[in-house]
Specification:
5 strands; Aminopeptidase; alpha+beta; 145 residues; five-stranded mixed sheet; globular
Length: 145
């Protein structure tokens, strides 16, 4: 792993970094006020890997409270490392940060959804200790307005 890299947990004050991240990973433009609102949301976390000043990877996850037993869990919504930065350990490093946050908050469960056709992602998640819970999932979207 390159010596000049860092995994950064975005916090209020990192609006400019989030704006860069949204453009690089999602081809989306955020206004400073939108970035500020996102960084102040409770229960959501954003990590990025900086290789020098270059954004190499990103992870976005939420803490979800389970109403029926009071146990919190983490849902990893997005984890991405730009192709030119694959095989440098950045995905592992971000996942270890998610694990540390989970442990620090006494959250015993981390889960995510992955496409069954994305063999390299599934292989990565299994190497990180993930266990496949279902071979087939159906994603259903609603657009209420």
């Amino acid at each position: 792993m390159p010596a000049n890299h860092a995994v950064h947990l975005l916090r209020p004050g990192d609006e400019a970094l989030l704006i860069r991240l949204a453009e690089k990973f999602y081809n989306s433009r955020l206004l400073p006020a939108e970035a500020k609102t996102l960084l102040n949301r409770a229960g959501q976390f954003m990590l990025c890997v900086l290789e020098g000043d270059n954004l190499a990877g990103f992870c976005y996850f939420h803490i979800l409270p389970r109403w029926y037993d009071g146990v919190d869990e983490i849902f990893v919504y997005d984890l991405e490392v730009k192709e030119e930065h694959h095989r440098k350990g950045y995905g592992r490093k971000m996942f270890r940060k998610v694990f540390a946050i989970a442990k620090g908050r006494d959250i015993p469960i981390i889960w995510l959804l992955a496409k069954g056709s994305n063999g390299s992602a599934i292989q990565f998640y299994e190497k990180m200790g993930g266990k496949i819970q279902t071979e087939e999932a159906v994603l259903i979207e609603f657009y209420p307005y």
